[in-house]
């Protein structure tokens, strides 16, 4: 049995991570993220180095982290499209948060986090976040297993 057997059993939430820097905004579907400290409060999100959002996030000071509602279309928009080729925010309700970070209005919950550090994890870079603000609504977050049919929209 390989590591894939272990990871196939995990069904954690998926997130949309958003960023803004240099007049550009970006967002992507993320399956690797977790709270990593209680005191001080810290959260880490992992962005693929092949992803357009990573290019914007590495210049940003703040990221937005969103739990998605049971809306596969929203997950597909941020997971299957390439932000270098299309504006993923076109037609989506959002507001501007700290540092110009786009915040999705229809998220089940979201927070903004100041980027404290970045570290290499292989083909993903970890962004260590200190929460700045939190918004919560009603709903059940979308899970990883509900999005396995989405093909990543990385740049070609």
UniProtKB/TrEMBL annotation:
Matches recorded under Pfam families: Flavin_Reduct (PF01613)
InterPro entries, alphabetized: Flavin_Rdtase-like_dom, NADH-dep_flavin_reductase, Split_barrel_FMN-bd
Swiss-Prot/TrEMBL keywords: Oxidoreductase
Domain Flavin reductase like: 7-151
Protein's name in the database: Flavin reductase family protein
Species per Swiss-Prot/TrEMBL record: Streptomyces crystallinus
């Amino acid at each position: 049995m390989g590591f894939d057997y272990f990871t196939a059993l995990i069904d954690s939430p998926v997130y949309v991570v958003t960023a803004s820097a240099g007049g550009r905004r970006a967002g992507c579907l993320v399956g690797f993220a977790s709270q990593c400290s209680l005191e001080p409060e810290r959260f880490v999100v992992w962005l693929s180095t092949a992803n357009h959002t990573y290019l914007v996030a590495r210049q940003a000071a703040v990221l937005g982290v969103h739990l998605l509602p049971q809306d596969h279309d929203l997950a597909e928009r941020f997971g299957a499209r390439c932000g270098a080729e299309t504006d993923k925010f076109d037609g989506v309700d959002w507001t501007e948060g700290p540092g110009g970070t786009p915040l999705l209005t229809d998220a089940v919950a979201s927070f903004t986090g100041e980027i404290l550090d970045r570290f290499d994890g292989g083909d993903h870079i970890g962004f260590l976040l200190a929460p700045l603000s939190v918004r919560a609504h009603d709903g059940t977050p979308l899970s990883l297993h509900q999005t396995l049919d989405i093909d990543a929209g990385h740049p070609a």
